[in-house]
Amino acid sequence: xxxxxxxxxxxxxxxxxxxxxxxxxxxxxxxxxxxxxxxxxxxxxxxxxxxxxxxxxxxxxxxxxxxxxxxxxxxxxxxxxxxxxxxxxxxxxxxxxxxxxxxxxxxxxxxxxxxxx
Length: 117
Hints:
Blueprint: E1 2-8, H1 13-22, E2 29-35, E3 42-46, E4 49-53, E5 56-65, H2 70-81, E6 89-95, H3 109-112
Antiparallel strand pairs: 1-5, 1-6, 2-5, 3-4
Helix pairs in contact: 1-2
C-alpha cells in the first residue's frame, strides 16, 4: 500500500477531485497548507505599499491506495493540477505498512476498498 501526498494550488482542487473520481479513486483527505518552493513567495501591493508574502496558500491531498494504483493516481493528479506555471505543486509517494477501518476493524487492502461491509 502507498500514501500519495500532493500539494497543489487551491484553484485546482475541484479539477483534481473530479479527475480522481472519474478514474475510480475515492477517498481522500484535504487540508489547507502554506509553503513555498522555487517561487520563494510573492511580492504584493496593497494601497501603494509593497510587502512580501513568504508562504503561499496551497492544499495538501492525502490518498491511501493499493500499490498497483500509484501510477494512475500520480498521472491523474499531474494531468489535472498542471497549469504550466511555477507553483503547480509536488507529489510524494510513501509506503504504508498497515491500514485499519475503524468501524469494522478490517485492515490493509480490504480497509481501502469501497465495499460497504
